[in-house]
Fold this protein.
Amino acid sequence: MRKLLVVMLAVALSLALCVGAFAEEKKIKAAFVYVAPIGDHGWTYAHDLGRQQLEKMGVETAYTESVAGPDIERVIRGYAQKGYDIIFTTSFEFMDPTIEVAADFPNVKFEHCSGFKIAENAGNYFGRIEEPRYLSGMVAGKMTKSNVLGYVAAHPIPEVIRGINSFAKGAREVNPNVVVKVVWTGSWYDPAKEKEAAVSLINAGADVIAQHQDSPAAQEAAEEHKVYSIGYNQDMSKFAPNAHLTAPSWNWSVYYEQTIKALQNGTWKAEAYWGGMKDGVVYLSPLSKAVPQDVVDMVEKRKQEIIDGTFNVWPDKTDQDLLTMNYFIEGVEGTLPK
């Protein structure tokens, strides 16, 4: 009996230790560094929805918005010094500062969005947004009457160029006469410049305006000028109820949740993540009622083919080709500034 009691006590103690360890394991602190305000209704807003989802999981989070220039490294380093377990840096220009700070804090994990560098304690992540970009191009190619599509673009980096080309590829599949005119703003978030660029494209004959920008300003310009629009990051239809057709969109909570779980169970490792529509990290927002049913059916069919893996937007390109894309395909009109 005494032996049985000792065994039972040992088992109970072991279980208590396990429970205690699990409870301790769940106390994760995650910080986010944003390039624009969370009220941009676009890129940063989408990331912040993912952060909010982590809080629902019991993760303690913090964030700093509108970070630029010399403040980038300072903000990242500050979170590392405060003992955050993982720091998510969410813009391309945050890549080098992230890697530099990671070298000084080997016990902190770092995740950088849209870059390509990796360190022992720093991974990177992005999504195959070119998949819903392509689908949105199909919609635009069917909805245009002028055969001119406008594209308001931020910076001429591979991420943005790849999106423009994917959009044009989808549009020209369904309408070979389409051209995509590109105007650069030189900024991720500048509503005034974005709107001005959209208006210039409308004046140049574009009757569908797409964007790789953080605000809905281009959508509002399309609404005011009574042309169609394609949003980005999230469904932007509330800003342009008559113009907005659809939007290539992000669900960052998919990646943030799996990253935190990996951190909790000890399986996290620095790697390059690039999920697609089948993973749910990217998707196409609902098509508006202005889109005819035959176009809806066509897009849904192609979307399912992408998810099933029977259709590849860029079948002749490797991931490295896509990550370094620095040219426009046929049908895209615009310059590529250095």
About this structure: The CA atoms of residues 31 and 87 lie 5 Å apart. The mean pLDDT is 93. The chain has two domains: 29-128+252-279, 129-249+282-333. The first strand starts at residue 29 and ends at 33.
